[in-house]
User: Which sequence fits this backbone?
């Protein structure tokens, strides 16, 4: 998941910060709405779990960023990127280490992408409630790991997600009860 946000030349988005520093979902949602109200253009790129497994997380992140840029309704003058360069995009680019803390545009994009992802995970919760996506948002929490061990991965889990790649062996006990998983 990646987002691209185009702001005015001198944006004044005082409440915008790196999405990882805004831990409360409701606050992050308020900040996201503020960004959407003030941005000249916003777009999101999404790479599916199977593709992430195929090309790796870094390449998938770059692909999502490329999609976000391509989905914009306004072409930016320059791309400010969080520590990467998009080789497949022909336009001026400035990769910034810790960009989401140094650039309000990158911080705004990180908030939009995080809120989009959180809402997507909430929608997946309705389809796969045993994984508790509404609360863990797909992160490798203890409860999420326990659900993976008990139920195995869902179709939306990356095979490379922590816990999914561990072999699961289900066996039947002599008393007719199903056994648990072993490593």
Assistant:
């Amino acid at each position: 998941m990646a987002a691209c946000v185009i702001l005015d030349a001198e944006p004044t988005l005082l409440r915008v910060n790196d999405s990882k520093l805004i831990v409360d979902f409701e606050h992050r949602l308020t900040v996201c709405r503020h960004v959407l109200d003030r941005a000249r253009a916003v777009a999101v790129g999404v790479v599916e779990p199977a593709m992430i497994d195929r090309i790796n997380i870094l390449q998938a992140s770059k692909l999502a960023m490329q999609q976000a840029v391509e989905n914009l309704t306004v072409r930016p003058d320059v791309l400010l990127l969080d520590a990467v360069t998009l080789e497949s995009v022909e336009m001026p680019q400035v990769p910034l280490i810790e960009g989401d803390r140094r650039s309000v545009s990158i911080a705004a994009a990180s908030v939009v992408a995080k809120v989009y992802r959180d809402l997507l995970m909430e929608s997946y919760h309705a389809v796969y409630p045993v994984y508790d996506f509404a609360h863990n948002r797909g992160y490798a929490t203890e409860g999420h790991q326990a659900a993976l061990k008990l139920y195995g991965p869902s179709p939306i889990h990356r095979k490379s997600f922590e816990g999914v790649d561990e072999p699961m062996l289900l066996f039947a006990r002599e008393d007719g009860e199903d056994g648990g998983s072993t490593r």
